[in-house]
Amino acid sequence: MKIGGFQKSSLIDFPGKVAAVVFTQGCAWRCPYCHNRALVYPSRFQPSMPVEEIFEHLLLGRSQLDGVVITGGEPTQQCGLMDFLRRIREMGLLIKLDTNGSNPGMLTSLLEENLLDYIAMDVKGPLSEYRRFVGCEVDTGPLELSIELIKQAKIPYEFRTTLVGGLHTQEHLDQLAPLMYGVRRYAVQTYRMPPSDFRSQPPFTPPDVSLFHIASEALRDRVDEFLVR
Fold first, then answer.
1. In this predicted structure, what is the pLDDT of residue 68?
2. 132 in Cβ contact with 161 (< 8 Å)
3. Where are the domains of the chain?
4. Are the beta carbons of 53 and 3 closer than 8 angstroms?
5. Counting C-beta atoms within 10 Å of the first and last residue's C-beta, which end of the chain has fewer, N or C?
6. Which pLDDT band holds residue 44 (cuts at 50, 70, 90)?
7. Where does the chain have alpha helices with state H?
8. pLDDT at residue 196 above 80?
């Protein structure tokens, strides 16, 4: 496991739970509005935290925690992910995974072994224009598989889209609606500008509030629960 950061406690990353947050390093995508570029671009990586240091923190804080969030980067590209989650499970802690959905094979394995209690998948935009949102060519077939896997999962889940001013349009949200049809929980969240030293791409801005109204009109009747963050 390549771990780029650790937060001892969070009240917002695991719905309804107090959770530690583990930030993994590495992602195959290059989303131009990424807020965690220090976890994506190898040239920005800090030395990886030792796994045992993470578990020392978890042992010390276990009585105050409900669970652990694994985020990134993209956690499912970590070859040691399953063993890492098994150890967390042995501690009696709940596990939430944040993912971009690019590795449905790993998701299948994690679900089959009952190593997840909550999944949050980022859906960047309509699949037909995914390159625009992720900054590279991408096979959307695995993303569709991941969406279906998660929709059929017997654990809580959510899909979420970060709305970016100058990038997302009403047309994109209208195209997303059929893809999200029938999901239990879907959230739109506002883009937050990264620190200035990470702005190597043309600047994006938080979305106009009207875009959230458009998202609500396009999606709220397609999903069981629609959230704005």
1. 99
2. no
3. 3-165
4. no
5. C
6. confident
7. 51-61, 81-90, 104-112, 130-134, 141-152, 170-179, 209-219
8. no
Per-residue pLDDT at 154 exceeds 90: yes
| pLDDT value of position 149 | 98
CA distance 102 to 27: 10
Task: Tell me what the mean pLDDT of segment 152-178 comes to.
Answer: 97
pTM strictly above 0.85:
yes
- Strands 3-10 vs 19-24: parallel, antiparallel or unpaired: antiparallel
The answer for residues whose C-beta is within 8 angstroms of residue 83's C-beta and 6 or more apart is none
Residues 6+ apart with CB under 8 A from 27: 39, 40, 72, 73, 74, 77, 100
Query: Helices 81-90 and 51-61: crossing angle, nearest 10°?
Result: 20
The CATH number of domain 3-165 is 3.20.20.70: yes
Give the count of alpha carbons within 13 A of 224, CB side only. 9
Phi/psi at 16 (nearest 5 deg)? 75, 5
